[in-house]
UniProtKB/TrEMBL annotation:
The active site is at S193, H249, E284. Exopeptidase that catalyzes the hydrolytic cleavage of multi-L-arginyl-poly-L-aspartic acid (cyanophycin; a water-insoluble reserve polymer) into aspartate-arginine dipeptides. GO terms for molecular function: peptidyl-dipeptidase activity; serine-type peptidase activity. InterPro entries: Class_I_gatase-like, Peptidase_S51, Peptidase_S51_cyanophycinase. Its EC number is 3.4.15.6. One of its GO terms (biological process) is proteolysis. Keywords: Hydrolase, Protease, Serine protease. Belongs to the peptidase S51 family. This is Cyanophycinase. Gene3D superfamilies: 3.40.50.880. It catalyses: [L-4-(L-arginin-2-N-yl)aspartate](n) + H2O = [L-4-(L-arginin-2-N-yl)aspartate](n-1) + L-4-(L-arginin-2-N-yl)aspartate. Coiled coil: none annotated. The keyword Nucleotide-binding does not apply.
Length: 374
């Protein structure tokens, strides 16, 4: 059948970078589809595409999954470029022991912050860096996304507003394509700031409003404590992030109190058990590199994983992993400040330095066993 659609036909080249933008240019094309919904969505699509290099139509290892599953959680601020080098190296480590060909590193943005990805192509061997700007639900259901995600050797979610991720990508074709690509081929996936916060099974979406630690602790049932668990169709792209909630810009914006509140909500709502629930906070200019092999059940919550924390030069950022045990007691009720005892904190710094301490929340006040919340 013939349909009148809005399509893009604009390109400009700056150095080796090709920038494509959607324009309101009507053309008639032949479309064959069994589901008219996606075709209608494509008509309203505002997909933005920029290319650095020449995209290839294959994965680095072909149809062979990678040897391990990997992810990067970055805390916002200036990107930790070493984390991209790590992802690029992982995207060609084939499960059969061979080294794959350079592939496509795909950056996906929700339209809230213009991404700057020009440096990714020079931190490791890739065929191309492809940036997709997906600013609404119609665009997230555009079939034009499929070849880019199907040939993605690694996927990166940018920062900005995680509410846009949730409102525009939930239950969309894009979310399903990402989930399938990571699940089937174990390609590396990562994100920074808002991109980090939507990678876990439980996500704070900051919609309709943002919440501070002080407000969350004194009013844990505020409408601004907007925790969701239904963004990913398969719960989360990476098994170690099952039963997990994440937060970014952690120390700089004093988010320990609100992350503890999020952890309490996940347990109190019976989304998970206290025995396996965890929360991860990542400082600015800091990245948590996560890796898991398939010797363990990939669908099992609380799966063990290897990890490493890296930062930009001169930055003393850390990652904080929060959990509870049988000694923890939680009192989370409307119109009352939070009480939550024996919250275990593992602080992981660069060079493998780690420390463990306990935080108790008593009527909204944080008390640390070391005297320091961070």
């Amino acid at each position: 059948m013939e349909l009148l659609v809005w399509f893009f036909l604009a390109q400009q080249q700056t150095n080796s970078r090709i920038i494509c933008r959607w324009m309101a240019t009507p053309i008639v094309v032949a479309v064959f589809s069994t589901g008219i919904g996606l075709v209608e969505a494509a008509n309203k699509s505002r997909l933005g595409i920029s290319l650095n290099g020449e995209p290839v139509d294959y994965l680095p290892c072909g149809t062979i999954p990678l040897s391990t599953r990997t992810a990067v959680l970055m805390g916002g601020g200036d990107d930790v470029k070493e984390a991209f080098s790590w992802m690029i190296a992982k995207m060609s480590q084939c499960g059969d022991g061979n080294t794959g060909r350079p592939g496509n590193f795909v950056v996906i943005d929700n339209g809230s912050v213009p991404p700057d990805d020009t440096y990714i192509s020079i931190v490791g061997p890739v065929a191309s860096v492809v940036t997709l700007v997906v600013p609404d639900i119609e665009t997230a259901n555009d079939p034009a996304l499929e070849p880019y995600i199907r040939n993605a050797g690694a996927i990166w979610l940018t920062g900005g507003d995680q509410g846009r991720y949730y409102n525009f990508w939930k239950d969309s074709l894009l979310e399903q394509l990402i989930s399938k690509q990571v699940r089937n081929f174990k390609i590396p996936i990562g994100g920074t700031s808002a991109g980090t916060m939507v990678l876990s099974e439980f996500a704070y979406v900051a919609d309709p409003c943002a919440i501070t630690s002080s407000k969350a602790l004194t009013d844990p049932y505020s409408q601004c404590v907007a925790l969701r668990r239904d963004f990913w169709s398969d719960r989360t792209p990476l098994p170690p992030l099952l039963s997990t909630v994440t937060d970014s810009h952690f120390n700089a914006r004093d988010r320990m109190g609100r992350l503890i509140t999020f952890l309490g909500h996940a347990i109190n709502s019976q989304w998970t058990s206290a025995a396996i629930a965890q929360a991860i906070g990542v400082d600015e200019e800091t990245a948590l590199l996560m890796e898991i092999d398939d010797n363990t059940d990939p669908s099992s919550p609380g799966t063990n994983f290897s990890y490493k924390v890296i930062t930009n030069t001169g930055v003393s950022g850390s990652v904080y992993i929060l959990s509870t045990d049988s000694q923890s007691q939680l009192n989370l009720e409307p119109d009352q400040p939070l009480s939550f005892t024996n919250v275990k904190v593992r602080k992981i710094e660069t060079a493998g330095n780690e420390s463990d301490y306990i935080i108790d929340v008593k009527e909204g006040d944080l008390i640390s066993s070391t005297g320091s919340i961070y």
